[in-house]
Amino acid sequence: xxTLLEQPGFLAPSGTIGADVSYLLxxxxxxxxxxxxxxAKKAQGTRHHKLILVSMVAMIVYFVAYxxxxxxxxxxxxxxxxxxxPDDVYQNIFVPVLTTHLILVTLGMVLAFYMIPQGFRxxxxxxxxxxxxxxxxxxxxxxxxxxxxxxxxCWALVQVLLLATRPSPFGASVAYGLIFAxxxxxxxxxxxxxxxxxxxxxxxxxLGRTTMIIYALILVTSTATYLMLYxxxxxxx
Length: 237
Description:
Order of helices and strands: HHHHHEEHHHH
Oligomer: single chain
Strand content: under 5%
Number of helices: 9
Shape: globular
Number of domains: 1
Number of strands: 2
């Protein structure tokens, strides 16, 4: 699989199939999420829910492709593989942009997983269509504890696998640590969010707008990273 993704791409002269597919999927899921958000603005609840689920599938496929193509951005921490520009551009522009992109992708994915069940919890199905309902919405304490312990367990498992499979796991540990820290942060903020936005419908609308902004920024940083790697500063063979 990895060998296939490393073959010459079809979008850029110096690109790879993995990078091209990854970028196209980022474009697809971002557009789908934005269209779904537009549907929500028009009170098309059921269509919104369905398209969000399709968008989630596209995002998960993107995440997997990104993992294989760029090792979750770990290459930016472990070396300059794939970047042919000068050191100052690499350190001051490329790495910050890619790191920001990684943070946004992680945060966007976490928020998407959070928003889907939250949307169902905050809505009623009336006449075959989902509509947000006003009212206090809280997570049970037991559910909150299960979520936090699950995150901790997954992080520990990943660290063990990295130590067992990588000779130098520091870069990967940083990347995965960032991911799980973001997940834990969002989960731990649930109680604060409940206090600040107790009304489930209002919470869903506000967080939905925030999530859409994040997805737009994901597309911007993804495009910037792709252009630097495969158009502006490709590796010269």
